[in-house]
Amino acid sequence: EYVIQFEEALTGAERLDDYKRRPVETTGTHASVHPSQGIEVKNLSMRYFTGKPLVLDDVTFSLPAGKSLGIVGRTGSGKSSLVQALFSLYAVESGSVSICGLSATDNGHDLDSLRSTLAYIPQEPTLFRGTLRDNLTMRKDIDAKLVDVLATLGLENILQREGGLDQNVHERGANFSAGQRQLICLARAIVQDTPVIVMDEATSAIDPASEQKLEWALSQLLSHRTRILVAHRLSTLAHCDFVLWMENGKVRSFGHRKNVLPEFESNLHSCAQPYSPLNKRAGE
Predict the structure, then answer these.
(1) What's the pLDDT tens digit per position in 66-108?
(2) 44: which of 37, 95, 231, 284 fits an S-S bond (Cβ 3.0–4.6 Å)?
């Protein structure tokens, strides 16, 4: 256990050193956002460090505006790396990414405009020390909207606490449950009102009741937005229009959910079958 913790800490230190050595990001000329153009990824290849293997290898897919995409694949298949490429967190080796008409890969592209089109809900919900209001928005004139969004997500009990929107949020949201933290992150994304919302395995660590609320919000409150879901539970893909199956940094399959998901589930079943106790005879 201690060896694993040491390796994780060492990896974090290496990344911090890498970030410190990188040049400060510059923003280009402010660009116009065109939400109707959706997301276009063409022949995208990326690696984290020079000389290291590709984490994305010739990835291509297109997602129309207002549609939803579920990304599936085993651990290390490139799902989270693809999300990082969408946010332009790493320089790409080759290929292109276009989001709402904005390039995420061209030199001199406007990072502020690009990232303003994206709302992100991580696997580990992130809350900061401060007030509940400050964790939802920096604006001071939309309290009525904040209350409405929280109530719609079934968080009325939070608003009833002392202070309401001004109640204290402890470091990392320690005074909220995991499900509440994730729903607050979802409320933040709804309030941002961005054309695209990205969820990176956001249901992997929450209770079934909170997961149900989150899925309802995606299908009802966010149905007009372009949605990308990195899936941990296949049940979260029930309302997705398309599925992208990643394998070893490449696209194994892409298409309508009804076509790709059965193929993916069959592959999972065939891989797990040799290890099932039901397939082991006495003496084998």
Answers:
(1) 999 999 999 899 999 999 999 998 889 999 999 998 888 876 6
(2) 95
- In this structure, what token pair is assigned to residue 112? 């502020």
Task: Give the angle subtended at the CA of 65 by the CAs of 98 and 253, to the nearest 5°.
Answer: 75
pTM score, whole prediction: 0.80
Question: Where do the domains of the chain lie?
Answer: 34-277
CA distance 58 to 61: 10
Q: Which two tokens stand for residue 140?
A: 């001071």
pLDDT tens string 11-41: 878 777 776 776 666 555 555 566 678 999 9
DSSP letter at 251?
Answer: E
- Are 46 and 80 in contact by the 8 Å Cβ rule? The answer is no
Amino acid identity, position 185:
C
Residue type, 71: I
C-alpha triplet 194, 182, 134: angle, nearest 5°: 65
Gap between the Cα atoms of 52 and 50, Å rounded: 6
